[in-house]
Write a structure and sequence with these properties.
By secondary structure, the protein is an alpha/beta fold. It has 6 helices and 7 strands. Helix content is about 25%, strand content about 10%. Strands 5-4-3-6-7 form a 5-stranded parallel β-sheet, with helices on one face. A two-stranded parallel ribbon has the order 1-2.
Length: about 270
């Protein structure tokens, strides 16, 4: 992983040093392109040193992949590409969890609904994951009616664990894997609501690619996080607040919901 990408906490981020120590006698992390040679020499020396019988002589060198790029010895970083921007503090009810009673969550959902109603159609996106993509407790159907009432685009995580599909359930657009494509898609929207999903970042630190995929101002990014709100209850409240209770799949949903399609009768040809 690129050294400058670790700050955004990507999904594939992990404590690689701890993993290496579980199988290695000696572990060293190269801190720059200029230290790779010395790190490898030190690891080789550690491996050659005698050890008691049965002891490990495995040495591991950890190198951030951007340190292997030729130009890294004289790094020139274009603004907004390699360097990870400061973490976005989105409009999130979890910020209220320890200081405000339950009515504050209700007020948060009301404010979120107001922002959704005020956003022009096709300029709002609902980014969903986890429980929000399941029909359990009616979550995914609620998202469909909210999208139909507000004109929002439904987008799901690229690496979702499960999503319910089929007749009577809403269509979702899957977020692109590569960061340039995903950032381009998300740049179309002036407001984003994330439901039971982390704000998307690039999986890896790609050369000349963005780390953060969302560039909206904090006040235009809303989050419903299952760690601090009940997702089914919150979506039911939000559905009522945006006036989506009268949306009927297949009738006045604007094509958001999938319709049952009967296949043609076989002709015996």
């Amino acid at each position: 992983m690129a050294s400058w990408h670790e700050a955004v906490d990507p999904l594939l981020g992990m404590d690689i040093t701890a993993l290496a120590r579980s199988v290695s006698k000696f572990v060293i992390t190269s801190t720059s392109a200029d230290t790779i040679t010395d790190s490898v020499k030190e690891a080789c020396a550690a491996t050659k040193r005698s050890d008691q019988a049965g002891g490990s002589r495995v040495s591991t060198v950890i190198i951030s992949h951007d340190h292997t790029w030729p130009q890294q010895s004289n790094p020139v970083t274009a603004p907004g590409t390699h360097q990870a921007p400061s973490k976005m503090v989105a409009t999130n009810p979890c910020q209220l969890k320890h200081s405000a009673p339950h009515p504050a969550i209700h007020d948060f959902i009301a404010s979120c609904a107001k922002a959704l109603r005020a956003c022009p159609k096709a300029q709002c996106a609902i980014y969903a994951g986890g429980q929000a993509l399941l029909q359990d407790d009616g979550c995914i159907a609620c998202l469909g009616t909210i999208a139909a009432a507000t004109g929002a685009t439904l987008i799901c995580e690229n690496a979702f664990p499960r999503i319910d599909r089929g007749a009577g359930l809403p269509h979702f657009q899957r977020l692109a894997y590569f960061p340039q494509e995903a950032a381009k898609e998300l740049s179309k929207y002036s407001l984003l609501l994330a439901v039971d999903a982390r704000l998307p970042v690039a999986m890896f630190g790609y050369k000349d690619g963005p780390s953060q995929l969302i560039t909206l101002a904090d006040e235009n990014v809303w989050q419903l996080d299952s760690s601090c709100v009940n997702i089914p209850s919150a979506l039911q409240q939000l559905m009522q607040q945006v006036g989506a209770s009268n949306i009927i799949p297949g009738q006045n949903c604007g094509g958001v919901f999938s319709q049952p399609v009967r296949p043609d009768m076989p002709k015996g040809e």
